[in-house]
């Protein structure tokens, strides 16, 4: 399920996560914040990003994963 900026208060496992335990979870409790954490460490630290920075990161990972690398 995609997260909605400013309206996703619960942690959601990333659709890019695999079944090997290497998972990240994301949420967006505020319009200008996307929080990211390691699902294996739910009480551990979380990183916060501006939505446009997180979107650029996800786009880059998606492009590289599909074999369409960008400069």
UniProtKB/TrEMBL annotation:
It comes from the Bacteria. This is DUF397 domain-containing protein. InterPro entries: DUF397. It comes from Streptomyces smyrnaeus. Pfam families: DUF397 (PF04149). Residues 10-61 form the DUF397 domain. Residues 1-20 are annotated as: Disordered.
């Amino acid at each position: 399920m995609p997260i909605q900026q400013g309206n996703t208060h619960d942690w959601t496992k990333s659709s890019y996560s695999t079944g090997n335990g290497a998972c990240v979870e994301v949420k967006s409790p505020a319009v200008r914040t996307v929080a990211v954490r390691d699902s294996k460490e739910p009480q551990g630290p979380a990183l916060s990003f501006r939505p446009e920075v997180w979107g650029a990161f996800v786009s880059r990972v998606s492009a590289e994963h599909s074999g369409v690398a960008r400069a």
